[in-house]
Amino acid sequence: MQRPKIICHMMSSVDGRLLTDRWTEPFDGKDKTEFYGVYEDVSRQFNADAWMIGRTTAQQDFETFSFDFEKYPPAKEFKTHIGSRSSATSAIILDPKGKLGYKSNNLNGDNVIVVLGKSVSEEYLAHLRDNGISYLFGGKSGMNLQITLETLYTDFGLKTILLEGGGVINGAFLKEGLIDELSVIIYPGIDGLSCMPAIIDYMGQTDNNPAKNQSLEFLKAEVLNDGMVWLHYKFHTKN
Questions:
Q1: Model confidence at 184, in pLDDT bands (50, 70, 90)?
Q2: 51 vs 1: CA distance, rounded Å
Q3: Span 203-237, pLDDT tens digits
Q4: Taking the model in full, what pTM does it have?
Q5: CATH code 3.40.430.10 region(s) in the chain
Q6: What is the CATH topology of the domain spanning 1-49+159-239?
Q7: What per-residue confidence (pLDDT) applies to 63?
Q8: Is residue 124 exposed (0-12), middle (13-18) or buried (19+ Cβ within 10 Å)?
Q9: Which has the closest alpha carbon to 229: 184, 196, 164?
Q10: Count of other CB atoms within 10 angstroms of residue 131
Q11: Do 191 and 16 touch, CB atoms closer than 8 A?
Q12: CB of 175 within 8 A of CB of 214?
């Protein structure tokens, strides 16, 4: 299968937690938000064609609205649609049920591509088309990652994608052995509370081992501004 290279690129506290509003404050009194630009600076070094997030992350971090996805019956045809492709990079949103509505065709200036399941309505697909938004179908459930990546490669020409969470989406990619590299920016602070969202949160039973037969090769460690640390690894999978 031809697919894009997947780099899981995340920023976390020292204990691997994701909720930035829970992290301890910088010791020198700086505003915590000053640290977030470092993450974007590192992101640009990968020269990726797109970045990918799940619906929950998109809802939290960007201007979207809730679409009444249960109001309409499923569509009858499920074909890839290529909308506006004017931006240099793309924002890929995994939203199997089509819960998010959009006011434009871009997030942070990047054209949106939505990955859907086959339960979405024609009304929702029309909403996406009317806004110039591209979409594709990740199998019946919308979470067939193999189909999703193959379509992004063949139909959209994407060669490198930054996988930027949340942890549940990252966990799903890990379980399928689809992460090629892991890049983590460590913020010098702690959350500390049990069960808070982490950079990789595979949803399974306690006897599941989503990283089985995978190992990490160290590529790089770099101390960044204000005590932040960048760790970079390559994934290897044993057959």
A1: very high
A2: 20
A3: 888 888 999 999 999 999 999 999 999 999 999 99
A4: 0.94
A5: 1-49+159-239
A6: Dihydrofolate Reductase, subunit A (3.40.430)
A7: 76
A8: buried
A9: 184
A10: 16
A11: no
A12: no
